[in-house]
Amino acid sequence: MAKKIAIFASGSGINAENIIRYFQENKLINIEVVLSNKENAYVLERSRNLEVPAFYFSKKQFNEGEEILSLLQSYEVDLIVLAGFLLKVTEKIIAAYPGKIINIHPALLPKYGGKGMYGDKVHQAVVEAGETESGITIHHVNENYDEGNVIFQATCPVLPGDTPDQVASRVHELEYLHFPRVIQEVISTL
């Protein structure tokens, strides 16, 4: 029986699309549904264009949790993948999926993580601090932002004179290369 994944995303959905495409021909792992907390997030359109059901939910629905959990259960979801999802996952959802929620962060945790550290803000902080490397961290989700157990990290250089956009470009390459593969490894152990 195929393992089933739900993707939570808040933005344009480039990582979500990459993940969906990676698993399209896989008979053992299916991307079942995409959920977003932003009504106009492009990830919803990307997902539907790839024939994956996609839904918007309000912050109230997310905080209460029942409707989202019911939807996840209706799709028999085994693993939740956060791909550019900006809300803190509620304790109710974490309790329903213990050890079965993973996230990708665009830096080498524990540095440059926590509330408010996402996207360009992370790359700006890395450049301003004069770091010589950055990268990605794929980790389990717990009740605190970016503090779950690390599953995988990959690094890229930060060169003298780099702009945050140049760092972001290298980090995105790592995301596209490694995130789907690590998802496959994680779900294969469930």
Description of the molecule:
The protein is an alpha/beta fold and 190 residues long. The protein has 7 helices and 7 strands. A 7-stranded mixed beta sheet has the order 3-2-1-4-5-6-7, with helices on one face. Helix 1 packs parallel to helix 7. The chain is globular. It starts with a strand and ends with a helix.
Biggest sheet strand line-up: 3-2-1-4-5-6-7
* Rg calc: 16 Å
Strand content: 15-25%
User: What is the approximate shape?
Assistant: globular
Separation, N- and C-terminal Cα atoms: 12 Å
Q: For the report, how would you describe the main beta sheet?
A: 7 strands, mixed
Which percent range fits the helix content? 25-40%
Mean of the pLDDT scores?
A: 97
**Element order: H for helix, E for strand:** EHEHEHHEHEHEEH
- Tally of DSSP β-strands: 7
**Secondary-structure content class:** alpha/beta
Work out the helix count.
7
State the low-pLDDT regions, or none.
none
Structure keywords:
single chain, seven-stranded mixed beta sheet
How would you summarize the topology of this molecule?
Blueprint: E1 3-9, H1 14-23, E2 29-36, H2 42-49, E3 54-56, H3 59-64, H4 66-74, E4 79-82, H5 91-96, E5 101-105, H6 120-128, E6 133-140, E7 150-157, H7 164-188
Parallel strand pairs: 1-2, 1-4, 2-3, 4-5
Antiparallel strand pairs: 5-6, 6-7
Helix pairs in contact: 1-7, 6-7
